[in-house]
Specification:
The protein is of the alpha+beta class. The chain contains seven helices and eight strands; from the N terminus they run αααβββαβββαβαβα. The chain has one domain. 27% of the residues lie in helices and 22% in strands. The strands form three sheets. Strands 1-2-3 form a three-stranded antiparallel beta sheet, with helices on one face. A three-stranded antiparallel beta sheet has the order 4-5-8. Strands 6-7 form a two-stranded antiparallel ribbon. The structure holds zinc ion.
């Protein structure tokens, strides 16, 4: 079913990857390979000190960039922390997320709000402090997301769903599903930064 996913050309990772015209959904949604300084400088909802201390994946060059609409990762030292970085309107935005702990939904099969993949035990409530004054007053935005934030890989059928659940058969092409994933993620980030 997912075998037909076309490979992103080398141009997808180039500087002009956002310039794709109609029909270039895949190229326009793939994030370009990121570096640690780029990611640290892109955090919008935490202090500078927190951005400096944030756990960035060591193996950035080993990430499957050509299949990633965004980079999402967990802090291996602190299970309650997660992060994501995505290009929104041509600008890299990184977000700090907290995982408040197992909720009732995590025990049964539930669906990720970004990629609409269902997992049993593989979906986690993640909460982002809002930016600016709203965040200082303790306002947050939360959603149930794939625990490993590998939404891009589930959409492309590059990673098997854990436990029960899975992905519903859809009429949308993988490209369109990736676009929907980015639309959902963008809406989340707009709620955090808006
Ligand atoms: Zn997901």
């Amino acid at each position: 079913m997912s075998e037909a996913w076309p490979r992103a050309g080398k141009a997808a990772a180039g500087d002009n990857f956002l310039a794709g015209g109609p029909g270039s959904g895949l190229a326009s949604s793939v994030v370009k390979p990121l570096t640690e300084p780029e990611i640290r400088a892109a955090f919008v909802n935490c202090s500078k000190g927190e951005a400096k201390r944030a756990s960035i994946p060591r193996d950035l060059s080993g990430q499957p960039w050509e299949d990633l609409d965004f980079l999402g990762w967990r802090d291996p030292q602190s299970p309650e922390r997660a992060y994501l970085a995505a290009e929104i309107d041509g600008k890299l935005v990184a977000i700090v997320l907290r995982c408040p702990g197992p909720g009732p939904l995590q025990k049964k099969t539930s669906m990720c709000s970004f990629c609409l993949t269902s997992h049993s035990g593989g979906v986690t409530l993640m909460v982002a402090p809002r930016t600016g004054q709203a965040g200082q007053q303790g306002n947050t935005v939360g959603d149930y997301l794939c625990t490993d934030l590998a939404c891009s890989l589930y959409v492309r059928g590059k990673k098997a769903v854990r436990g029960l659940g899975g992905r519903r058969a859809e009429r949308l092409t993988p490209e369109e599903q990736a676009e929907r994933l980015m639309a959902n993620l963008t809406a989340f980030i707009v709620k955090v930064t808006g």
